[in-house]
Amino acid sequence: MKRNILLLAVFCQGMHTNTAEVGISCIAAFLRKQNHEVELRGIRVQDIVIEELLNKKPDYIGIPVYEINHQAVYALCKDIKDYLPHTKIIVGGVYPTYKGRIMLKECSDIDFAVKGEGEYTMLELIEGKPLSSIDGLIYRTNAKL
User: Across all residues in the chain, what is the average pLDDT?
Assistant: First the structure.
């Protein structure tokens, strides 16, 4: 089933703004080859307009997270879930690779964290493979990690 996916690089103060963020750019290209509709955006925290996200109605939003932007990502995830409660939020990158379980404990609005390379993990997740069989995926079951 074709999914609508938004990959969103969130830049906060202290980060170099680069809309061609390598990790999610590779994931976007990979998922597009699998016939999924993927939009890739880089945006500064202060420029995010939730209404624009609402219009896209993504099934999944993927966000790379670094230590410098993790608090901003938490706030964004809360805003997204307030307006799009059924959209699944996936975080990946360096920070979730090492602190994915902590992130899911600190931010209940994050649905999944990806450890390591994310191409196949994301593909298997959005294509509905059983969660327990997806390598590199951190998730909750019955409110437990």
Answer: 87
Query: Among candidates 58, 64, 29, which has minimal Cα distance to 43?
Result: 64
Q: How far apart are CA 115 and CA 64, in angstroms?
A: 11
Q: Can you give the pLDDT at residue 145?
A: 58
Averaged pLDDT for residues 94-99: 94
Sign of the alpha-carbon dihedral angle for 94, 95, 100, 104 = negative
Residue 58 and residue 6: Cα distance in Å, rounded? 6
